[in-house]
Amino acid sequence: MKVNPGGKTPRRITAAEAAALVKSGDWLDYGAITAQPDVFDAALAARSAELSRVGIRNCLSVRPRAVLEADPTGEHFQWFSLHFSGYDRKKHDAGISHYIPVNLGEIPDYYRRFIDPIDIVILKTRPADKDGFFNFGNANLWHRAVIERARVVIVETNPNIPLGHGEQNGVHAGEVDFIIEGDGAPVAELPSTAPTEVDRAVGRLIASEIEDGACLQIGIGGMPNAVCSQLLDSGQKDLGIHTEMLTDGLAELYRAGRVTNARKQLHPGKSAYSFALGSRALYDTIDGNPDFHCLPVEATNLPDVIMRNDRVVAINNTTQIDLQGQAASESDGHRHISGTGGQLQFVRGAYASKGGKSFVCLSSTYERKGIRKSRIVLELTPGNVVTTPRSDMMYVVTEYGIANLKGRSVAERAKALIGLAHPDFREGLEREARAKGLIPRFY
Questions:
Q1: pLDDT in tens, 11-30
Q2: Which residues form the Acetyl-CoA hydrolase/transferase N-terminal domain (predicted)?
Q3: What is the pLDDT of residue 1?
Q4: What domains can you pick out in the chain, each with its CATH number?
Q5: Are 361 and 318 in contact (CB under 8 A)?
Q6: Has residue 71 got a pLDDT over 80?
Q7: 197-207 and 222-234 are packed helices; what angle lies between their axes, rounded to 10 degrees?
Q8: What's the predicted TM-score (pTM) here?
Q9: Active-site residue, 244 included
C-alpha cells in the first residue's frame, strides 16, 4: 500500500459523535465477522428512535448487535447479511435480517461494480502502527473494496485484535476520516464442539484420500474440522493451506508441524487465508506470525486462483443432497440458515487443480421433533436453495462411505448415493428413485 494514500488527516472522536453522523436513509457498512464495530454499534442503537430507514450491511455476526436489540421490529434499522451466523438467522426469523445471495470471493467485485456508494463504513482494526496503518488483523475479506466505495471511513481500534501479516490487510490513516477508541474487549471466539462418532467416521474416510503435499481448504463446522483431527493421527506431511476460513483444526495441524506449505505453487511457505475464526489459541497462533498470510477474499476464493496450487483438497458441509447430487447447504426450505459462502468456488477450484479433490460431507440422518429423517433424499425440500449443482459435485461422504459422482449417469449417481444413506432409508429411496425413473427397470 502507498504511504498516506488519500491524504486525509483523521480526527479522534467519541462513539456518540460518530453515531451522530448517521442520517435517516443512510447506508452503513459494518464489515465482516470480528471487524464489526461494538462501541459505535451501541452508540447508534442509543439513537434508534431518531432514525428511520438506515440500512446496514454486514457478514456473520459473532456478537449480538445493539442496533437490532434496540429495534426488534425493524422500524429504524434494516440488516442485510452476506452470510448468516446463528444470531443473524434468529433475526431473519424475526423478519429484520435479510440475506444477500453471493459467492464470497466475488464480493469485492460487487462493491466495486454493482453496490451503490456507502455513506459510512465502520470497521474494527488494530491501533495504527508506526507507519500509520490500521491492521485488519484476522479478517481481511472485502474490507479494502468497501473503503474504496465509502464516503466516510471510521475505524474503531482494539489492541486485542491479532496482528495479521498479508496483503492489503489494513487501511492507512490517510484514508480514514475518524478514529474511535474501542472497548478493548477480547476478540469474539467461535466455540468448538466435540466431534461426534459420525464426524469422526467421515473424517477418517476423507483423511484416507488426502496425500502428502495436499493443499487444504476446510469449511466451517465440526465435520470438516474432524478431518484435521484424523490427519494428526494419519501421518501426512508437507501439507499446505489455502482456505477462505482459517480454523482451529488447521492451526492445530500447523502447531503439530504437519503444515509446511513447501509444495504450494501459490504463496509457497505460507498458509493463505481470508479470515480466521475460532479460539484464542487460533488467534495467538497467527498473531504477528509471518507463516500466515491474510488475503482479500478474491485472492483466496476465485476458482482460477485456487487451481494454481496442485492437489487442492476442499472439504465442506451440506445439510441435504438429492439422488442426482444437488447439495443444499444454506437453507431449510424457504428459511435461510447460513449462505453460499465459498463452497461452490472451492468445489470448482479444487476440481480444476492438478490432482485436486472436492469433498462435500454430511451425516446420513438428522432428528427433528423426535423423528429421524434422511439427509439423502429423492428430491430437495421445497424452497431449498441449491448451493452445489449436480454437475459440479465430486466426492460425497457420509459415515457409510464415499462416492465420486464425476462422470456418473443419473442412475449411477442415485445408486451410489443410496449406498451412502442410512440403511433404514435405502429401500425406500430406491423404490422412489425407480418410481420416478431415476433408476430404470433394467438397471
A1: 999 999 999 999 999 999 99
A2: 12-189
A3: 45
A4: 11-181 (3.40.1080.10), 197-435 (3.40.1080.20)
A5: yes
A6: yes
A7: 60
A8: 0.95
A9: yes
